[in-house]
Amino acid sequence: RAKTAGPGTVRFFEVSDDKSARDRRALQRDLEKAVGRDELFLVYQPFFDIRENRVTGFEALLRWQHPVRGVISPAEFIPIAEETGLIHPIGEWVVRRACSTLSNWPSDLRVAVNFSAAQFHNTSILQTIVQALAQARVAPSRLEIEITESMLISKYGPASSILNSLLELGVTVALDDFGTGFSSLTYLLKLPYTRIKIDQSFIRDMLTRPDSAAVVKSIIGLAQDLHIGVVAEGVETTEQLECLRQTSCDEVQGYLIGRPVSADRIFALLDQNRQWTTPAA
Ligand code: C2E
Ligand code: MG
Ligand code: MG
Ligand code: MG
């Protein structure tokens, strides 16, 4: 670490550590107020079914409209929320809002919500999800929970009882960023997941790197053998889409199909044309 790196470097690192620590504390204080001030909002990114040629639902992605800094990405503030416990009220807000938005959509569409490991540390999350579904009057099968592989091997591992209860209710569960963790397949697939989502890093490189292409192909094969769904994340080109079509991937997501947009914007698109297809189709 910096403090043992020699006299010449100590000061430099201490100063920048101080600044980033201060920034972080300031952001943390602002985040405490963000929920009450209605500064958080969700954007929605479509899932596109390659065979059926239609949009099957949307993933809810969190954004923070900071009063001074503008829109802040979840990659920046979710870690702070996790460390401070703010992830609990924020996560509750996300699932309630996503379910209430879902209630305005045609019934053949689902919404996917991202969860942090820490949220499953609090068993009241189950009650929160059940209430959110009931209040919005939407079928549990239209809600999908996205969890990452790394979450399963974290210290919050025993979340499997909550996941099992959700699956029994009919809520679906997707394994996000699949292929990026270090866990064994047998461990990963202990629960009856509904879907796996191939991490975007493999999709990005699949046409230029044979190893990435092999990973994509084998994840799709695995999903087929297990009779579960498979989604490719981060599809940006028609060449990638074509390749995934030939490999029998079920669904794709990415800027080619649609960027994340506000609920209003989706509602307008669905209003005109409930079978919302896409230019890429
Ligand atoms: P994720 O769930 O894996 O979401 C995919 C990320 O890739 C999103 O970034 C999305 O905007 C981005 N993306 C989608 N298509 C493309 C593409 O074609 N190319 C590229 N380069 N990127 C694409 P975003 O919205 O910044 O979210 C980052 C991560 O933050 C998410 O990764 C998720 O892990 C986390 N996150 C987002 N919303 C929530 C939330 O409500 N709760 C929790 N706990 N985590 C969240
Ligand atoms: Mg996700
Ligand atoms: Mg992902
Ligand atoms: Mg991710």
UniProtKB/TrEMBL annotation:
Domain of life: Bacteria
Residues covered by the EAL domain: 24-274
Protein name, per record: EAL domain-containing protein
Naturally occurring in which organism (per UniProt): Bradyrhizobium niftali
Range covered out of full length: 373 to 653 of 653
